[in-house]
Amino acid sequence: MTQKTIIIAEAGVNHNGNFENAIKLIEKAAEAGADYVKFQTFKADNLVTKSAKKAAYQEKNVNDGDDSQYLMLKKLEMPFEWHYKLQKHAVINGIKFLSTGFDEESIDFLDSLGIDLYKIPSGEITNKHYLQHIAKKGKPIIISTGMSTMDDIKAAVKVICDQGIRRSNVIVLHCNTEYPTPMMDVNLKAMESIKNEIGVEVGYSDHTLGIEVPIAAVALGATVIEKHFTLDKNLPGPDHLASLEPSELKEMISAIRNIEKAISGDSKKKPSNSELKNIQIVRKSLHYSKSRGKGHIIQEHDLVALRPGNGISPMEIDNFIGKELLYDVTEFTQVEIKHFK
Predict the structure, then answer these.
(1) Shortest CA distance to 297 belongs to which of 322, 269, 260, 330?
(2) Where in the chain is the domain with CATH 3.20.20.70?
(3) Would you say 143 and 173 are in contact if contact means Cβ atoms under 8 Å apart?
(4) What's residue 2's pLDDT?
(5) What CATH number has the domain spanning 276-339?
(6) Among the listed residues 299, 300, 298, 303, the one whose alpha carbon sits nearest the alpha carbon of residue 324
């Protein structure tokens, strides 16, 4: 995996079961500069019982008069036949296609498409057979960890690595699965704990409102950022409200790319190439505060620090106190070594 921050624009189920919406989401993700556009691949019958209830945020955001998670997901299934056209459209638009498979049948189908990595959603982190099934594909894996403890993450990573996946090919995303996530619950410092305790690269899957938290995560060392986006936040559906609209996605990605540049230095404190030209202009050098004649013994009040800084540094002032002038000097001229015995 690359040193550049991988940015996954999470279209998810924000197509609302409409193929043309899915096409538009790919185009908007590409225009924004994301590395991947990611959907969700599942069959409701493999994922949830018909008696399962919606999460509170799903019930609020969908607001269709029933609390059935099954019926909600059934409407949001992305047919397998869509994938071929969507993947091709992604290639045409210069962005990589990705989808999270939520069941083993979907994982096998995605494998047939030749996707280059797998994304494990937070809800499957304790699903051992599912984890093993993905790991046996032998490709890099990204894991979201919403609702997880450190022990949950350690156990999942062990299951994956026991199937032969190298730890260096696992990236763990810190995540909170409340939509939207309250700022007080973000806990970005958990990324560092995950990295130190588990020995993997880390990233962040964001469900807060706005763009500032993913940007901060990159500054703190995230190597992958995942963020939901939508064509319109006002569309009905479980995830639109906590998603970015295309202009916001573009703004977030631009800011992240700037942060990458800002943290890419060698950590040595020294003047940068761009500021070298300003040193003499902004700093000061020693000058005479008044005109003085030959033989004058320099006192502290005879010297003043003034711009430009192309002469003797004011840090050297003590070296000239008590010295005798060899020449007459005029007010505000620079102090020079040759002026003294």
Answers:
(1) 322
(2) 6-262
(3) yes
(4) 42
(5) 3.90.1210.10
(6) 298
